[in-house]
Amino acid sequence: MDFMTLAKERYSVRDYKDTPIEEEKLQKILEAGRIAPTAKNNQAYRVYVLKSEAAVAKIRELSRCAFNAPIVLLFTYNKDEEWFNTKEEDYRSGQEDASIVATHMMLQAQELEIGSCWVNVFPPSEVIEAFDIPANERPVLLMPIGYPSDKSVPSERHTLYRDMEELVKVL
Q1: What are phi and psi of 26, to 5 degrees?
Q2: Does residue 163 sit within a domain?
Q3: What CA–CA distance (Å, rounded) separates 127 from 106?
Q4: Which residues of 75-105 are buried (b: 16+ CB within 10 A; e: fewer)?
């Protein structure tokens, strides 16, 4: 499958089968994140694989958007390791790095026919406490992953795109 087909077919899965993800496929997804580019290659991100019964139950209590997935990935970044712009201090890379890594993993999952959903609906401070996240890490997103259920379909907004001229400015 070429990249554009892969990217177009990927959608936010909000209903999953009970089928576990094979360990070799999970490792391939995690490896796709490990090789993702990050600012100055600092690799300031962390991925927490929430797959134990207790961890999955806990994240489902904290977010309605775990969507009964068998695994939920929690992406954070380490504030002590993120790159920062020496010309303007407010520009830092942690959130961007975690997002790049998550995107790589999301697309690798799609190639393996494993669905995913990018989730920002969760209370970061409660997630930090519930999973004993170190104080120097900031949660960025959750990503439920698993095999889509037979009822799973893309949102009606999935193929609605703005015109290229509205999004891209050639200067």
Answers
A1: -60, -45
A2: no
A3: 21
A4: bbbbeebbbbeeeeeeebbbbbbbbbbbebb
> What is the per-residue pLDDT across 103-146, written as a single tens digit (0 to 9) for each?
999 999 999 999 999 999 999 999 999 999 999 999 999 999 99
Contact 50, 74 (CB under 8 A): yes
State the residue range of the domain holding 57. 3-150
Structural domain contains residue 138: yes
Residue 168 lies in a domain: no
Is the confidence at residue 90, as pLDDT, over 90? no
CATH code (residue 127): 3.40.109.10
Q: How far apart are CA 47 and CA 45, in angstroms?
A: 7
Contact between residue 24 and residue 52 where contact means Cβ atoms under 8 Å apart:
no
From CA 80, how far away is CA 92, in angstroms rounded?
11
Tokens of 20: 């576990």
* Structural domain count of the chain: 1
The pLDDT tens digits for 2-56 are 999 999 999 999 999 999 999 999 999 999 999 999 999 999 999 999 999 999 9
Q: Say if 111 falls within a structural domain.
A: yes
